[in-house]
Amino acid sequence: MRSEKDIMDLLETFFYQSDDLLVFLMNGSKINVNIPDDKFKDFDVAFFTNNSAKYKGNSEFIKKSFGEILLMTEPFNPFNLELFKDESDGKRYSYLIQFVDGNRIDMSFYELDYLEEYLKADSLTKLIYDKTNRIKKEMIPSDADYLLRYPSSEVIKECIKEFWWQFLNTLKSIARNNYLLAQKFLNYTREQLIQMLTWQVALDNGFDKNYGKEFTTITNFLSPKTLNILQQTFNTTDFESMISSLKIMKTLEVKVEKILADRMSFDYTDYSYIPKSYLISKDEEELASYF
């Protein structure tokens, strides 16, 4: 596996040998000093040019400049636009490249007139080179945009309602014997529970911290008992285990709701009766008996 210096040398050479490339930026975990370095960090690269069309659907330069490709995707090609939203309104083109040697580069080419908007969008951005000195102010990469904020009571209440809404969607899919859809909605339900748990963790360990992508680092702060309970909700290989997972999530959700309501002082509405009430209204008494 080539070293970080090897890859940076290749990126810098490519940038300087391409006259149309004017600004070279990086973001992501590679430049986040608050995340321990490891071999899985990728190179998230943004080049700015007056001719982004030059790089659209024309990937021959990648192997020539950076090495043998194991797998590559182009999220914003015409065939993928139904899967990936382009927030730049067509002003970028990207290649996500996994190389044979283990390195990965996520490389995007932006129109130069998108530079100002890009700089506002992500605080974790590092200036590597600027050929024409377009960026006047000093750039200090920071993960400020990724820090957890103290939520308003309205935000918490919406999260609670969303948990129970997706809970009902999961029950409906189970009642219809639709396994794949039930899994999808069950995951949505768990996402809301994890958000609630993250706020609880932050009450004890501080807000304005980065708790990781999708709040993954809260597992470092949960008690062993709570972590074990949460892990049990991922055992969903059949409908019976899905129902068990929902029961576990229901109990944990209610517990966390009450903790947050008490410590964050908002009016608490207990929705825990809703799953059973809903199922009874649909004449699903047997399923309702579990809740």
From TrEMBL:
UniProt entry keywords in alphabetical sequence: Nucleotidyltransferase, Transferase
Record SUPFAM superfamilies: Nucleotidyltransferase, PAP/OAS1 substrate-binding domain
Protein's UniProt keywords contain Chloroplast: no
One MF annotation (Gene Ontology) recorded for this entry: nucleotidyltransferase activity
InterPro entries: Aminoglycoside_adenylylTfrase, NT_sf
Name of this chain's protein: Aminoglycoside 6-adenylyltransferase
Signal peptide: none
Species per Swiss-Prot/TrEMBL record: Isobaculum melis
Keyword Cell inner membrane carried by entry: no
